[in-house]
Amino acid sequence: MFDTIAQQLIIGLTNGMVFALVALGYTMVYGILEFINFAHGDVFMLAAFLALTLVGALDVTQQTPPGTLAALLLGIVVACALFAGGLNYAIDRVVYRPLRRAPKLAPLVSAIGVSFILQNVGLFWGGSAMAVFGGGGQAAAPKAFPDILPQTNLAASLFGVETKLTLLPKDLLVMGASVVIMAALYGLVRHTKLGKAMRATAQDPNAARLMGIDVDKVVGATFLIGGALAGVAAVVYSLYINTIHYQMGYQNGLYAFTAAVVGGIGNIPGAVLGGLVLGLVRAFSDQFIGAQWQPAVLFGILIVILVFRPAGLLGSTAREKV
Amino acid sequence: MLEVRDLHAAYGAILAVNGVTLDVRSGEIVTLIGANGAGKTTTLNCIAGLLKPKSGSVRFDGEDLARVPAHDIVRRGLVMAPEGRRVFPRMTVAENLEMGAFTRKDKDGIRADFERVYGLFPILLERAQQVAGTLSGGEQQMLAVGRAMMARPRLLLLDEPSLGLAPLIVKRIFEVIRTLNEAGTTILLVEQNARMALKTAHRGYVLETGQVTMVDDAARLLADARVQAAYLGE
């Protein structure tokens, strides 16, 4: 029983971390623009496609020596972060920024449009462009993402006791990478000049302008950082789940967006908490209720949370007086 | 220092400012008084670059500001403390002041200005680590003025600094306005508290339905029968 619970904790936390990384992108943009970037999940998806392409092109396998593997993996993470960050920035610059003063529905509908466009790009990328990596030809088919990390079970050696628990290197990688990145983001937002400008802009964009803050630059930086987080999440997710497909952004984006709302949209620690809650509820409901009930249980619980805390777990219920 | 010429501005279809012309000379305190909706705040928003005028011009030190974005206007030394205080509610008092100095890089100068603001408003030092949203209205106003000071303005625009504040705090704010002016900051003050504003300012403009109807020395406006009847409640 203890093993089962511990196992679900591991699964829930790792999944939750990935949701949290993606949720951060939604919540940061919402915090500043009060706008849901529905294309965010698809940026995540395309970054996963890039990761698979790079893994194939660089011939990274389980047989790659550990030192080289670590270096290549780091390179792939950086490449995906830059790619997703740049893509997200470009989408804002080209599509959303001209609509900044338009009625709120205009950027929203455009974001949904961008999401579909990116999914089509994913379909194309997964088709002939990726034919070499298996699943090619059938563009819509899920692509296998190879297991490039060792499959040694670390549980016994780590805890020093006989246990049925499975703890793989990739579990540690997900958790380690996520914690490091979230801590870095927290430090950036709390202590750097850019971070403070982001918070000021989120709290009152016009007042921020009066301080001499270039709000367009701050918004651009927010899209860049949010996209980069999705890029890292994409590599981590692909290594963890081992399957990617062109609709994964839509599906995981929806989960991540839900996580952001449950945590309190616009609130950075809230997105992390929301992601973890989502991951844990999913894991335990799969174990104790049944995987086929997952969406119903998950969203049922989330609705109950929102009924009692409409602004989310860490969201402020009342707006500050002006 | 500041020349506003035949300014027209609108929110949507509603014309709020309809041909305002005004000047602020270096070293002055100039006040803009008028009823609610007369276009005082709209005029300031155009000067600070938050609102694009429909026509007319705003020149600061001889430079036309039409194409200068709001965040660059600050760098030129023209700084506004907006109506309703608009402090950053979830940032601390110290962080708010730090944001005021956002465009500056002179660490020593910034430190000196922190001292100066805390000297003028000791309560802000006491509350330095408190988030601004939890301050009282008067404290928030002090913070808003202090935050604007942190940008080292040469021309400071103050929009309704006394709105909704207790008389004692209003008095304190006006004292600080005078102190700042004596230290060399030029001030353009928008106020609904016409009496206090005219007592503090050198010159005044009366704004009615988007147009300037009177311009004169503040003392003379204070003694004017029409001003007394309309704005001083006598």
What does this structure look like?
- The complex is a heterodimer of chains A (322) and B (234).
- Chain A is globular and about 60 Å long.
- Chain A has a two-stranded antiparallel sheet.
- The relative contact order of chain A is 0.20.
- Chain A has a single domain, classed as ABC transporter involved in vitamin B12 uptake, BtuC, CATH 1.10.3470.
- With 322 residues, chain A is mainly alpha-helical.
- In chain A, 70% of the residues lie in helices and 1% in strands.
- By secondary structure, chain B is α/β, with parallel strands linked by helices.
- Chain B has a domain of 162 residues: Rossmann fold (3-Layer(aba) Sandwich).
- Chain B is built from ten helices and ten strands.
- In chain B, strand 7, helix 7 and strand 8 form a beta-alpha-beta unit.
- The relative contact order of chain B is 0.19.
- The mean pLDDT of chain B is 92.
- Chains A and B meet through helix 7 and helix 8 of A and helix 2 and helix 3 of B.
Q: What is the element layout, followed by pairings?
A:
The complex is a heterodimer of chains A (322) and B (234).
Chain A: H1 2-33, H2 40-57, H3 66-96, H4 105-126, E1 143-144, H5 155-159, H6 169-191, H7 193-203, H8 205-210, H9 215-241, E2 243-244, H10 248-263, H11 268-288, H12 294-308
Antiparallel strand pairs in A: 1-2
Chain B: E1 2-11, E2 14-24, E3 29-34, H1 40-48, E4 55-60, E5 63-64, H2 70-75, E6 78-81, H3 93-100, H4 107-120, H5 122-126, H6 137-149, E7 155-159, H7 167-182, E8 186-191, H8 194-200, E9 203-208, E10 211-217, H9 218-223, H10 225-231
Parallel strand pairs in B: 3-8, 3-9, 6-7, 7-8
Antiparallel strand pairs in B: 1-2, 1-4, 4-5, 9-10
Helix pairs in contact in B: 3-6
